[in-house]
Amino acid sequence: MAFFIFACILSLDYGMIKHPIEIFAGNPSKGGTCFLSHLDDLRRQIDKIDDQLLKLVSRRGVLAQKVGDEKTRLGKATHFHVPHRERAILERLKDQNKGPFPNTAIEPIFRELFSATLALEKPLRISFLGPQTTFSHQAAVRHFGHSCTFNPCGNIEAVFLEVELGNSDYGIVPVENSIEGVINLTLDCFVDSPLHICNEMRLPIGLFLLSNVPDQKKIQKIYSHPQPLAQCRNWLNRNMPGVEQVPTSSTAQAAELAKRNKNTAAIAGELAAEVYKIKIVKKNIQDRAENYTRFLIISKDQAKKAKMNKTSVMFSITDEAGSLLKTLQLFAKNKINLSKIQSRPLRNRPWEYLFYVDFMGHIEDKTVERVLKTLGKQALFLRVLGSYPEKGQP
After folding, report:
1. What angle do CA 90, 96, 99 make, to 5 degrees?
2. CATH classification of the domain holding 310
3. Are 265 and 197 found together in one domain?
4. How many domains does the chain contain in total?
5. Using omega within 30 degrees of 0 as the cis cutoff, is the peptide bond preceding 100 cis?
6. Is the pLDDT of residue 347 over 60?
7. pLDDT of 154 strictly over 60
8. Which of 43, 105, 314, 321 has a 20 to 30 Å separation from 287 between CA atoms?
């Protein structure tokens, strides 16, 4: 039978084939079936498409380099990153997409392409709340692509400072978790910072069990930050009862310890497995599946208007009866939808409060412009943090 298959292969004229290749399996005189090489033919077609994709990507890179040269000639080299141009490309491609890939798969592919293209000219510098492999790092990679230069910072204030000093082009900071609520420190940093919110993103928080131990039953110790350990308590009690749980300063440190020590594991994000070369034993072991963190992208530059926009402002008002109601009615009368309102005590000023508000619309909209002008007259303090593309709910 093997000789017969080999003879059939040798007899094929591949240059003349226009239909799936078929050869016999078994003994043809005894009713052997005709199969092969429809699969091989499909794979060859995929290989040819891959070759074409590589040529097109390379050609795109060459054109992007010429764009960079032209910017330099025109004196616009400082604006090498044009996020609204990327957004327009993604919107156009999503409108044209007819499948089979969903738009959620198309966007990451092109974000990586944008990232690699920019790196030909100059990689974007991104600051985030470190260390590496944290969810802030994961959000930064997802939003900006792998080809950036990533700068882990020890705290949220340092992320703001790095962007303000020009050491980074953008910063990414957590502002809200679907379970734990608002990150107040991030809001506090906006009070004195000149930076703008230029975008937002929501990251699903998936916690993975990571280990290089082949047999899960041999794991004797699990490392992680106290919060992930708490968020996976029920799963750990059901699946790994009696295994020692060791708190760490971060999920990154947990992954590093699990890689270094025998018969141990870590609970961390997916990026930790990639960076520290640890196998994923079990995905999404958190007790609550619906767990998202919202991140803000901060920059010295304001975002261009998009199709759907959100604006964030901070203001303080006089401490008297009805003052907050009067302010909220200002938005209601003008049919502006508030998506969030959060109060914060003013630092060094007891019993005085600052309000953080998100609402739908852009500062260039006439209605929004009119409302903010009126609010500026009523408020003791008003700061527009930015108008930026609204991502919608995850």
Report:
1. 100
2. 3.30.70.260
3. no
4. 5
5. yes
6. yes
7. yes
8. 105
CATH of the domain at 275: 3.40.190.10
Residues with active-site annotation: 293, 295
- pLDDT reported for residue 4: 37
- State whether 26 and 71 are in the same domain: no
Instruction: Tell me the mean pLDDT in the region 40-44.
Output: 91
Within this chain, do residues 378 and 313 fall inside the same structural domain, yes or no?
Answer: yes
Question: Residue 22's pLDDT band (boundaries 50, 70, 90)?
Answer: very low
Residue 73 pLDDT class (50, 70, 90 cuts): confident
Both 357 and 340 in one domain: the answer is yes
**For position 319, what pLDDT does the model report?**
74
CATH number, position 72: 1.20.59.10
Q: Is 336 exposed, middle or buried (0-12, 13-18, 19+ CB in 10 A)?
A: middle
Q: Among candidates 67, 128, 153, 95, which has minimal Cα distance to 296?
A: 128
- Residue 140 to residues 115, 286, 331, 333, 339, Cα–Cα distance (Å): 12, 22, 33, 38, 24
| 266 to 94, 111, 327: CA distances (angstroms) | 38, 30, 48
Domain end, chosen from 156, 188, 205, is at 205
Query: Range of 65's domain?
Result: 41-117
**Other beta carbons within 10 Å of 392:** 8
Q: What does pTM read for this prediction? A: 0.80
pLDDT tens digits for range 162-202:
999 999 999 999 999 887 788 889 999 998 899 999 999 99
Phi, psi torsion values for 130, nearest 5 degrees? -85, -175
